[in-house]
Amino acid sequence: MEIFLQQLVNGLTLGSLYALIAVGYTVVYGIVQLINFAHGEVFMIGAFGALATYLLLFQGQTALWILPIMIIGAMIASVGTAVLMERVAYRPLRNAPRLAPLITAIGISVFLQEFVRLFFDKVPGTDFPSAKAKIPFPQIDVVTGRAFHPMEGVTIQRAAIFTVAMLLLSAVGLWWFVNKTKLGRGMQAVSQDPDTARLMGINVDRIIVVAFAVGAALAAIAGVAQGLQITNVNFKMGFIAGLKAFTAAVLGGIGNIQGAVVGGLVLGLAEAFITQYTGMLPDPFGQFGGSSWKDVWAFALLIVILVFRPQGLLGAKVVDRA
Amino acid sequence: MTVIDTEVQDGRARPQRGAKVLDAEQVTMRFGGLVAVNKVDFDVHEGEIVGLIGPNGAGKTTFFNCLTGMYKPTSGTVKFYGEVLPPKPRAVVKAGMARTFQNIRLFGNMTALENVMVGRYCRTTSGAITSVLHGPKYRREEAESRSRAQELLDFVGLGKSSELLARNMPYGDQRRLEIARALATDPKLILLDEPTAGMNPLETQQAMDLIFKIRDQGLAVVVIEHDMRFIFQLCDRVLCLVRGEALVWGTPGEVQSDPRVVEAYIGGSELEDDEDEVQA
Amino acid sequence: MNLPTLPDTLREQHSGKGWPLALVGSLLLLVSGLLSWSFDPSILGDISIAFWPASLQLFAMILGAVGVLLALMHRGPLHRLGDWFDTALGLRALGTGSLLFVVFSLVAIASEAGGLVNVNPGGWLALAGALLLTVGARFVPQRQLNSFAKAKANPVLEIVVIVLGMAAILFGAAYVLGRDDPWIFVGFLVMAAVAFMALARAGFFTWMSHVAQRHRHVLTLAAFVVAFLFPFTQDGSDANMSIATQVLIFAATAIGLNIVVGLAGLLDLGYIAFLGSGAYVGAMMSNAASATIGWKPPFIVVMLIGACVAATLGLIIGSPTLRVSGDYLAIVTLAFGEIFRLSMFNLDGNNGPDLTNGPNGIPGIPDLNLFGFDFGKPHTVFGIQLGRFSNYYFILLLLIGFIILVFTRLNNSRIGRGWVAIREDERAAEAMGVNTFGLKLLGFAVGAFLAGLAGTIKAHQDTAASPDQYIFLESAFLLAAVVLGGMGTVAGVLIGATILKLLPEKLRFFSEYRLLLFGLLLVIMMRVRPEGLIASKRRQLEFHEDDEELAQEVQADHLIDAAPEAAR
Ligand SMILES: Nc1ncnc2c1ncn2[C@@H]1O[C@H](COP(=O)(O)OP(=O)(O)OP(=O)(O)O)[C@@H](O)[C@H]1O
Ligand SMILES: [Mg+2]
Q1: Residues C204-234 pLDDT 10s
Q2: Which residue among A317, A318, A319 is best mutated to probe the pocket of ligand 1, counting the most ligand atoms within 8 A of its Cβ?
Q3: From ligand 1's centre to the CA of B62, what distance in Å?
Q4: How confident is the model at residue C429 (pLDDT cuts 50, 70, 90)?
Q5: Which of B62, B66, B56 is nearest to B265 (CA)?
């Protein structure tokens, strides 16, 4: 039972993180039918943005009020990156064959990782540490520190609570944005029928930028949460997180925002439980559990989902018109 | 069903009707709430040209898709020479049923000859290893495919265009090329989805001659058309579909004079209505 | 390399003056190479001596020679050739390019010797020549051209051109690999690129593709002879041969990938796993101390087993194509690739059965020994010593020959046509009786099989197999070789693979920025030339569906080969 509860906690934490990143895949896909493969890097840059803000302004401090400012720093970095890449790399390819944006995305992804790795310590006027190795992420009062033990054998990290709370907050904010603001409604209109939306006078280019920006903002939050959770950041952190978040987006039905959140949570839980319970099987099967096989299971799940349920958990099967 | 005699029309003797090639019973296709094809019975005999008419959105193309395995009908059976075929386009082609598309679907970046050679694919078998080794079977098959493809191009009147890219060809030629490609699969029954859409009167006349020529080769033909004059001159029997249902099914004369047909067209869209962007 | 074009009226007014200017410019460029370019004899392989051209001077002379050739084809003794080649466009490209090259050279001299004061008159003369050529070429009017499809073939001339071209490649490769000075190395590349562009603009390569169609066998033979001779130009040194073998493995794998991507039209982001499975099979069945399989069959058998294991994986990875396509398929293959790597990382006895030794991999794989021929020992042939890497080079050459054979023959067969049809319109292909799923699986299986073959050799050549060799980035590199070089062509992939492997090896100073530039390169390529440097005509058409002009051009040139002679 403790094991179950512990994995439930782990799964929800992990899932919240995936959900935050997955929204970025989903909003962009819903509008331009593009898998922004470089979104994982946007998340990574969010984490580095937060770190840079901290190092620049608050080095050595731990007060809680710093956190919102770090999140803002993270968002500036992420949103800036995402908007720039939309403008420079993706927009010119909007009518190109599907292969072109995908390869571009891989290019951007590699470029951004390397950019951070090579130049993080070369920002003029600062003495940031080199990003070639892991960099410790700042510890902040209240959200990091001693973990809770609600019962024997169950540990809840403070950062985990923070992550879940941020997901809730973001979900509410996102709901408000999509349904109550003009931009958000425009976004919905474009994703349902871009041509009509254009005829109705909606500036589709602008909506696309907004979609990239919204996704990036949530990824930035995820970046901070991840930094707090594993207490360090590194330039490679976006790759696997991005892939898994993409899985979550597909699981929830790509293009569907609520779906992305549900998908993230389901994926996180599935990953936690599969890893845990495979490890408890009798040998030789038990050897395939544990953290070293965790990613393998996540990827296997990804394949199974893409192959057998590409429309997601919530979506309906689409008939291929001939 | 009335048996059609060897009545003379258009100066051509209609050959005696042969065995039943295609037999569709109670074919129904639903898309969600929409019933695109509703319990349609249909049959085609050897050496016969059958027309399929109906206003836009009547379900003609969908019916074709059900016959050729592109869709799996919601209910009903399709028998080809008495056998039920699996709803797989490839199996259907292999059995001897080939089709063309309403909105031309040629392989644009292949030459005309290559397009037709793709049609030969299902009648050839050389695999990866013989292809790499250039074994005797490969050479024989390749030469055969090529000469057969050229023959078919000549047959449809495109003999000189074999090296043109399909996407560069004029519209009318593209339609004929699609027919040649379908013929390359050695079909016993060929289904043509609006073969004269967008053609001028001369081209339409040529298309009609071509269809007669195909029939004279011993093939059965099913044609979807909106051009009534064309259909009534060409076909031995005509099925009129309206909103997915078989309204009238009989000789051109019967269909032509049926008041329900006229009404369906006036109630639906106009008689000779060509502009349609509906999926093929 | 395109300057804004001149208004036509201006060009017509001065059309008479363009040609002499361009000719004089080219001659100046040619002559400048004979003069001294710098005071400092210690830099850039000594370009200080008059009448003894070295490095940059030689390159300038080559560009000058190309210019003279093009100019004389436009007007003068060779003007008949001008009916076929677009000399005006060629000269324009050459002009801009030469200017770029000379400026690059001057910068090189200045930075190596400390300032422009070190530039001798030769260098300035070259600059003047390049300027004249650039300006003159702008005013050279274009001529009415004949289509090569109507050209009468002159087999002897054509074969001579092929042989000369191949010899030039051999010579150039040996030369450039012998340069350690990065300035000279890059200078050579700039010069080669400029000459290439100029000839391409003039239509030389269109002609070559016709020639290649007529003399496919001669061309292939010549290419292999050149590749075969390459180790003999290295004086027994293994330094370049080591790079060359790496390029070959990489190219062989990339051509295999090109079957999947370029021919079958499927994106595979986990392709490195097939090379890896071949390598691991090779390693596990080798005589290495930590090899995990006791059975040691002869290497040929190991090769086949490795290839079959890879092909089986290929079938597994390909099976989702029944239901998935496009971007999703790409992600599925990526996931498979990662699962492969992680599994190799984990299967160390503690996490699952002991197959791969986990993160340490299987080191100490002994050299190949085929029929008593020890690949680890140097051998002397015709008095020239060939080292360990040369031995591997030869076996890899055989392998790549085989892979190219498979590639081209499949491409020209019924199966190749099926693949094109699937790429064009999968549903229509299916409706015409093409076994779409089977063909896609076949693409994956064949590609994987070939990569598996390469992998078994790679294990021995690297003397180790470890998981960190088979990361996603390597798959991305392979894909980049295909995308950069050209989809659906062998020559393109060879060039792409060479660029991607050779440059980082030769230009150590930028190795730190290698990946950064790589990422950038992908982004730029997709924008500028998504079909790659040397794309198959058909692929090019596919990437430019609305370019009617291109379609007419390709058709007029009969470059899509409806009648491969091989089938006759
Ligand atoms: N794959 C599909 N999914 C949902 N609805 C479909 C699908 N295919 C066809 N339909 C619908 O079924 C109906 C019949 O369409 P169909 O294309 O068969 O008509 P048609 O008789 O061929 O018309 P036209 O003369 O315009 O070609 C239409 O309302 C169409 O929208
Ligand atoms: Mg229709």
Answers
A1: 877 877 777 777 778 788 888 888 888 787 7
A2: A319
A3: 6
A4: very high
A5: B56
Mean pLDDT of the B18-40 span: 88
pTM: 0.85
Q: Where are the domains of chain C?
A: 8-229, 237-366+386-502, 536-568
Distance from CA of A115 to the nearest CA of C (A): 7
Which of B62, B101, B225, B231 is the best mutation target for the ligand 1 pocket, counting ligand atoms within 8 Å of the beta carbon and taking the most?
B62
Measured in residues, chain C has a length of 568
Nearest to B52 by CA among B228, B205, B276: B228
* Beta carbons of A322 and B280 less than 8 Å apart: yes
Where does residue C378 rank: exposed (0-12), middle (13-18), buried (19+ CB within 10 A)?
middle
- Number of the ligand 1 atom closest to the C-alpha atom of B63: 18
**Distance, CA B261 to ligand 1 centroid (Å)?**
19
Rounded distance, CA C283 to CA C362, Å?
A: 6
* Pairwise CA distance, residues C139 & C87, whole Å: 12
C414's tokens: 């019924």
- Chains touching A, CB cut-off 8 Å, 3+ pairs: B, C
Across A32-46, A195-209, A273-287, B3-17, least confident range: B3-17
Q: Which of A67, A41, A273 is nearest to A158 (CA)?
A: A67
- Within 6 Å (CB) of ligand 1, which residues are found? A 319, 321; B 31, 34, 36, 54, 56-62, 102, 276, 278-279
| Domain C237-366+386-502 indexed as CATH 1.10.3470 | yes
Spell out the residues 6+ positions from residue C410 whose beta carbon is closer than 8 angstroms to its own: B128, B131, B132, C259, C263, C416, C446
Whether residue C541 has pLDDT greater than 90: no
DSSP per residue, B182-232:
HHTT--SEEEEESTTTT--HHHHHHHHHHHHHHHHTT-EEEEE-S-HHHHH
Residues 6+ apart with CB under 8 A from A176: A184
Give the environment of ion ligand 2: residues with CB less than 5 A: B 61, 102, 278
Residue A301's alpha-carbon distances to A251, B200, C419, in angstroms, are 10, 56, 30
Question: For an interface test with C, which of B97, B105, B109, B161 has the most C Cβ atoms less than 10 Å from its Cβ?
Answer: B109
Q: Dig out the tokens for C48 from the structure.
A: 């200080």
Q: For C258-313, write each residue's pLDDT tens digit.
A: 999 888 888 888 899 999 999 999 888 877 777 777 777 888 888 999 999 999 99
Whether the CB of C340 is below 8 Å from some CB of chain A: the reply is no
**pLDDT for C560:** 60
Question: Mutual orientation of helices C490-506 and C239-258 as an angle, nearest 10°?
Answer: 140
**Residues C483, A103: C-beta atoms closer than 8 Å:** yes
- Burial code (b: 16+ CB inside 10 Å, e: under 16) for C461-496 equals bbbbbbbebbbbbbbbbbbbbbbbbbbbbbbbbbbb
Q: Whose alpha carbon is nearest atom 31 of ligand 1?
A: B57
DSSP class of residue A142? T
Element (H, E) at B256: helix B252-257
Closest-CA distance of chain B to residue A320, Å: 9
> Taking an 8 Å Cβ-Cβ cutoff, which residues of chain B contact chain A?
31, 65, 70-71, 279-280
For ligand 1, the distance from its centroid to the CA atom of residue B32, given in whole angstroms, is 13
Q: Write the CB contacts of C231 (distance below 8 Å, at least 6 apart in sequence).
A: C241, C244, C386, C390, C393, C394
Q: E strand or H helix at A151, and its extent?
A: strand A148-151
Q: What is the pLDDT of residue A243?
A: 87
CA B140 to chain centre: 30
Tokens of C465: 């197999």
Given ligand 1 and candidates B27, B28, B34, which is best to mutate, with the most ligand atoms within 8 Å of its CB?
B34
